[in-house]
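Hi both,

Apologies for the delay on this - the queue was longer than expected. I finally got the pyridoxal-5'-phosphate-bound model through. Below you'll find the protein sequence and the ligand SMILES exactly as submitted, and right after that the structure tokens for the full complex including the ligand.
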Amino acid sequence: MKPSTTPFTALTLAQQQLDVLDANLLRRRLKQTQSPCDVAVTVGGRQLKAFCSNDYLGFANHPKLIAAMAEGAERYGVGSGASHLISGHSQAHDLLEAELARTQAEHIDEARALFFCTGYLANITAITALAGLGLQAAKQNAGISIYSAKLNHASLIDGVKLAAAQTKAAVHLFDHTKLADLNNMLQADSSSHKLIVTDGVFSMDGDLAPVADLLAIAEAHDALLIVDDAHGFGVLGKYGHGILEHFQIQSDRIVYIGTLGKAAGVSGAFVCAHKTLLECLIQKGRPYIYSTATPPAIAHTVLASLRLIEGEEGQARRAHLNQLIAIWHHELQLHHWQMSSSMTPIQPLVLGSNAAALSASKQLDEAGYWIPAIRPPTVPEGSARLRITFSANHSTQAVRELIAELQKIEALVYTASETKAV
Ligand SMILES: Cc1ncc(COP(=O)(O)O)c(C=O)c1O
């Protein structure tokens, strides 16, 4: 049969969508790397200095973890073969979950942990299953409410949307810097089951959620507090246990989520909560129940990463990261681009328009740097930015060279625009 020359509807719609993205400078492009994730990366045959990964501790290409991955594959093979509740749950998963629970044991009473393929999946599972706990009461019109921080990561936003669609929960957004408003909203809420959902470290800004204050509000209104510490686990706290260790918080109403593909350098995520809540995730968390288990070799590698995170090497790497952050704040002087007060390895420079962020990213590329422009919907409209991230593998000199380059580019861009305006 001859192929039709007129495009079918979906193809036309897809092309229209791509045209709109192009017109708004919002089309994203995949870039292929030809070397491991590290601070120097080969991209399209060129070596670039990367300041854009979430490999904060520089573990993604660590020889001990490469050896652990090989050992894990030798011991357990390369695939799990099935979902956890069928036959995919191995000894490696159990060993890892016990160790992950130990990292939060001082902060969550009767802590138990569950390992997931990705943070996205962990968030969707946790929010839908935990919102679902209120379904019985909601049938008697008692209602479910979810309070979600406005700047939460997309995976939390999607988890909240899915939970609302499944449970008819009412969704309220809150500003994590204005907790009195959150308190007032909860005060007026008569729902019988309430969740508060927040990033631990806000992924595009680098600031910390005020977890102690959020917990106080959760306690006052009998809500469950879900903290996604994707960017805090491995980075915050003396032992790298994350934001609860950092703030020395202890409660059984916190559900802690950490990811393992960022500072831990490998892949996956975990949810840690009181053992009764966690058992409900296993029983009711559909994305968990219906996904093939992560290869046990990955769990085995994360276990090795955990030893590095907690040990002397992890502690030294966190101290070095803090030194890089201090240099950044003391030495970077910008006049137009907005710096952040973030004290984490996430250091955004907000440029505003998509065009400005794309242009700065291009000029950095020409100078040998890899720092993509971050645009909506990842960040709010009008706040396109360079999201600069540090890794413990960056030297102090590398950070100083980046500072000099950024100052040069900012001055050039603004001299050019002022000349044009005259
Ligand atoms: C705050 C936050 N939560 C969750 C995720 C998703 O984690 P994963 O990449 O493991 O799916 C990310 C990923 O960037 C994130 O930034």
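Main takeaway for now: The mean pLDDT is 95.

I'll put the files on the shared drive as well.

H.
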